[in-house]
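Two entries, shown back to back:
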Amino acid sequence: MSEENAEAKMPLLEHLVELRFRLMWSVASIIVLFVAVFPFAEHIYQFLVQPLADVFEEIGGQRRLIFTALHEAFFTYIKLSLITALFIAFPFISMQFWMFVAPGLYKQEKQALVPFLVATPVLFFTGGAMVYYIVMPWAYEFLLNFELEGGPGTLAIVSEPKVNEYLSLSINLIFAFGICFELPVVLTLLGRIGIVSSKGMKEKRKYAVLIAFIVAAVITPPDVISQVLLASVLICLYEISIFSVRIIEKKRIEDGDYDEDEEVNGAPST
């Protein structure tokens, strides 16, 4: 092997070693947090189940969650502990990611990426909070309206959710809303690299509204209030994205990197 090839491959080897180091720290943080969180898994689960408990209390009667397999509750707590550990470790993992990519970025690129790293967890947490405090109570109240009291010649239909199914439903809702709330981050990033423009986003607003209602209908429980609420939030986030992309375009115009007169079909030409 020539010296030129050895010198060319050394940086790649160093990057792989650095990547392994960052991954090891990230995995280690998740394991440590999992061990620390598991003793409190029952309390965390009770926190997640509180919206359903409040609805049950309003309806009245003796209510409960059940598990039909002996190991079901145990593995549910393991799953919940792992998800909680991932959630808590996310800032540390993001820092490891930043420490890995930052040395290869220019100063301007670092300044551009930092706001996205900060906004991502904030928006995700906002979406999750909206699910927990607003969507879940409305959705569970709507779904429990399908219970049926027993009487002469009829059987009662009563909800007795399983612990693992409730956890899956709650986590899926939180992640779905959290990801939807990342819309401004994604569109602003696409606007920064020139894939989308504020003009094009304005022209396609009617399609965005349609897609917002389709997404809301797919990921929310089947009640109109939750669907309209999520669709309205997505539309507002889309409008915020247009405003954010427009700010970036103005800055690029001031820097001489963008020309409004060269836009074609809503996207800047290169």
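entry 2 starts here
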Amino acid sequence: MPTTRTVLITGASSGIGRITALQLLKRGWTVHAAARRVDAMEDLRGRGAVVHALDITDSDSRQALSDAVAEHGGGLDALVNNAGYGDVGPLETMPLDAARAMFEVNVFGLMGLTQALLPAMRSRGQGRIVNISSIAGRFVTPGAGWYGASKFAVEALSDALRMELQSFGVKVVVIEPGLIRTGFEAVSQPSLAAGGDDPVWGRMMQNVATAWAEGFRQGSDPDVVAACIERALTEADPSPRYRCGSSSESALIQHFIPTRLWDAMVRRRMIGD
């Protein structure tokens, strides 16, 4: 790769995306920062980032971003697909429209932008695609079924893409953060609160909300994930997956515990059985 490397980071207005952008700017990268809220990225612009408006769910917006990055010149060395959010609720009652909206961002938006940018990477014979998943892409908990399903999809797509692109010199890496203090839980708070009023599922959702609050209070700083992303971007032979942050080890431990025992442990903590 050239001395000055170029990266596009989605969801760069806050949390993991913003911290990663700041870290890579310090390292001398040319950073394209994209998000819906351009005004929230003015500090990144002031530090040298190229700032773009992006509605990840809109194909025209994704194509406009791809064109703008290409017009900037120099080619794109890396894409960090970070944009995403979580909505929660019992599977029986969570509206399918809410689930579809989450998939539009977390899955279809991610792949739509990747499809727009990939031909140029492939033709250059080099590049990195780093997809931000979650430990929820390895196991799910009550109330987070649809969010987990979106991250399981990211894991599956990343695996297929990694194998498809190996002969073209484009490496695909998945980052699986644990509990990170990014304000993620605040975005999910309205659906958590609504679930708590449900006559059937209220007790479960109240316990879920309590468990999340405790977990995120003890969560890791987003800098931990930013460092992990930087490793994925710079190591000559990156691992297909990097786990990082509080509770991320659960994604490994879960595979060694019998399913019924794991279910009982999770239910005891999050449902109160």
